[in-house]
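User: Fold this; tokens only.

Assistant: Input:
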Amino acid sequence: MRGTVLVVDDDQTVRRCLGEFLEAEGYKVLSAPNGRAALAILEEEVPDLLLVEVDMPVMSGSRLAEALAHYPDLARIPLILMSRRKEHEAVPPPPHRVVQKPLNLDWLASTVATLAAA
């Protein structure tokens, strides 16, 4: 196993497709439908990387990134924020990234491998 990735997206199809792709790449995948559910998962298990949709109900990806900054153990986890929009709210500092959907799967595989190994 190459590591653990938490996929957070309110679209169940997106979560499933990204999860299947990442599992095929050798990752353990956790998933959550919003930032609040992701925080509950993070209380139980700390992944190597978070792949998070920016625009979600209940708790957005940007709010999740802000919340993680308050927890030293979680603030270090690399975060890839995904969005269909070209304009984004405040972007967390590196090693976090913001990418536009649809994702290029070759780029995703390479970036996840790099960030999850960091």
